[in-house]
Amino acid sequence: MLSVICPIYNEESRIEECILSILAQDYPKEDLEVLFVDGQSSDRTRDIIANYMLNYSFIKLLDNPKRIAPAALNIGIRASSGDIIMRLDAHAKYPANYFSLLVSKLKESGADNVGGVCRTLPAKDTSVCRAIAHAMSSPFGMGNSYFRIGSDHEMWVDTVPFGCFKREIFDKIGLFDEELVRNQDDEFNGRIIKNGGRILLLPEVVVDYFARDSLTKTAKMFFQYGLFKPLVNHKLQKPTTLRQFIPPLFFAGLIAGGLLSVFSKTILWIFVSVIVLYVLCCFAFGRNRERVWPDVLWMPFTFSAIHLSYGCGYWVGILKMISHRKISVQSNH
Known about the structure:
This protein is an alpha/beta fold. It is built from 14 helices and nine strands. Strands 1, 2, 3, 4, 5, 6, 7, 8 and 9 form a nine-stranded mixed beta sheet that branches.
């Protein structure tokens, strides 16, 4: 039995596409249950799911009073009956062999979690949306996060999206940490590795993921990723990756450089040079044969929205931890 758990909140624009990609799976439906765990949606999300429940008994709808993703995952895990657990996201479409490939690879590889590559797509056909999607697939934007930038071979990694787990891993190391509104996957995967487990990335399995549709939403999301990352490190008692430190160091360097350049022409020259070099890198990594200039012109704004928001959030998270203040955000997804 495979139990598929999908946290949702106000997914009216995407949920039907997600459900259709689930229905198209080649996995035996008699061995499948799909649990949508809803954080009290105020749009038509629940009605759309209810309509499909009339015809497909393996689709179920559960309530998530806490309205955050880790709570939804834990509700789903506790309510599930499968010996294999898979986590999905409603912002994505899945290839028809997604379930069967991941389950098969989980069994034969000895991994504790397996997942595929995210092909990030624009939420809308606009220049800014295409720029956001490109930045979230670029090594300059995401570093060596292989599930975002891709790989040409199977590899052991620090994290994967939309993972597929054996049920016993939750008995061994616990459920998702509900203190982490963001980065609960990173912390859980870090816990797997800390306890001697392994995480496998399958490059042939490609999920279409739809990015946020504005720079404001993208910046908010990455600020929250940065905000919770120090708490993840504290819980694991070590950093999960080295790439996480680059945005906060860049952010701190810009603040310090801007302040010190008032007192020194040399520092001013270095400060301006760094900014110019950064902008040139944005254009260089933002342009390829398929991209048109209106899209490329958005790239400095897009990359900086990701890097500076994450970096700022990281420092705010550290300050909150030092002052023993609870890290929290108003977010349902």
